[in-house]
Amino acid sequence: MKSGHSTNENERKAHVSIRLSEFEIPPIQDVLLIGKRAPIGPEAVHRMIEILSPEQYEIFEVEDGPFEAVVVRKSLARMLTREKLLNIILEEGYKVAAETSVLKAQVNVVLAINVEVEL
Amino acid sequence: MLKVRDIISSPVISAGILDSVGKAALLMEKHGIGGLPVLDNGKLCGIITSRDVRRSHPNRIVADAMSKNVICVSRDIFLWEAMDIMKERKIERLPVLENSRLVGIVTKTDVLSEIGRHTDPLTGLKTGVYMKALAESILQKGKELTVIFFDINNFGLINKTYGHVHGDRCLKAISRVLNKNTLNCLYFPGRYAGDEFIVITTEKREAAESWAAKVTDEMTRATADEGIPLTVAAGIAGGRRSAVRKESPFAVTVDNLINMASLASALSKKKNLGAGC
Questions:
Q1: 3 state DSSP class of B49
Q2: Tell me: the pLDDT tens digits for B72-98?
Q3: How many of the other CB atoms lie within 10 Å of CB of B272?
Q4: What is the distance between the alpha carbons of residues B261 and B268, in angstroms, rounded to a whole number?
Q5: Per the CB < 8 Å rule, is A44 touching B57?
């Protein structure tokens, strides 16, 4: 004999929730720092961005520290010299990264310009 | 003979450039090998070793873990040349190419094992087959080649009089003398057969003659120290090249030189001289 109570106890339900958002193309924003033992390496990233966003990123190999390479959006390098930009990014990256990390960074460069003109 | 082509592993087990490091590791484990050549559209583009695998995340593609500077060799190089490359570059394996196509791979273990098969177990000297191939490679490089042939006088009688154990001691004493006098990499010693030894050199004939005279004297002293003083006849051929050799294949030239040196040692024996030609 089955009771109604025991039927309720055995009941199983699934809760489905969906969150939709746009996929970023490419999914690396402005800068990607690739660790030496990261699950993805520079060659794989290079092939990915060349397919998803051709000619928009540059890859720089890094000798020291936990990183193997840095991927930088080319438009950033137009506002700052490559060396300055890399130094700033790597200095901050070294503080938080491990060799297994892949870090993405959003970098905003704002140029403040004041020009005095004769009235 | 004694070339890379004789011992290459083929067909080659390889990894694709877009394979995962994990897949490459499984391939190496399955076949019990420590490295794989990496192909991109059938063309050799790198090599991945078990060391690279240990250092990399298994999800990476092989392109991000492999060594890109691949040192390759042709099928026609001699084993010791392949060995020298591996020692110098501190690598364990060499992909073998023919017309830019990967046709095999050769490892340090394969080369050492094959060279070991051409080492005489009694004296530790190289065999006659090895010495012929070495002489051929010297000629191929366009260098001078002089062959010195040593033959122990009345060795059969010594074996019969004193027994083979004492005979073997004499052979070892003679090989020690040869080893001691060939440390400069100008002279290369081998045991040709039985009581016959061969030394090849890139030195000119005159230098080889004085070297041989000194060495035969040392051999007599060394065997006397073993209680059985022996005399050794030496014959010399070659070492008088005046132009690039074209007339015959190198193997034929080597055989001719060995034959002439052997006959010269027989003549020297008859004349009871130390060194002859």
A1: strand
A2: 999 999 999 999 999 999 999 999 999
A3: 10
A4: 10
A5: no
Instruction: Please name the residues in contact with A32: beta carbons below 8 A apart, sequence gap of 6 or more.
Output: A45, A70, A71, A102, A103, A104, A105
> Is the separation of the CB atoms in A89 and A105 below 8 Å?
yes
For tokens 């695998």, the residue is: B53
Complex ipTM value: 0.74
Q: What is the pLDDT of residue B272?
A: 64
Give the closest-approach CA distance of B259 to chain A in angstroms: 59
Residues from chain B contacting residue A40 (CB–CB below 8 Å): 57, 59-60, 64
CB pair distance less than 8 Å for B57 and A42: no
Cis peptide bond upstream of A39, omega within 30: no
Alpha helices in A10-117 (DSSP H): 42-52, 74-77, 82-96
- Per-residue pLDDT tens over the stretch B191-245: 999 999 999 999 999 999 999 999 999 999 999 988 888 899 999 998 776 655 5
Q: Do you find a cis peptide bond into B121, omega within 30 degrees of 0?
A: no
Task: Please state whether the predicted TM-score (pTM) of the whole model is above 0.90.
Answer: no
**Residues of B contacting chain A (CB within 8 angstroms):** 55-57, 59-61, 63-65
Q: Residue B237 in contact with residue B144, Cβ under 8 Å?
A: no
Chain A positions in Cβ-Cβ contact with residue B56 (cut-off 8 Å) = 37, 41
3-class secondary-structure state, position B51: helix
B59–A40 CB contact, under 8 Å: yes
Closest CA to B106 of B193, B37, B59: B37
The DSSP 8-state label assigned to residue B245 in this structure reads -
The helix or strand, by DSSP H or E, that contains position A34, with its residue range, turns out to be: strand A31-35
The number of angstroms, rounded, from the C-alpha of A63 to the middle of its chain's C-alpha atoms is 20
SS3 B43: strand
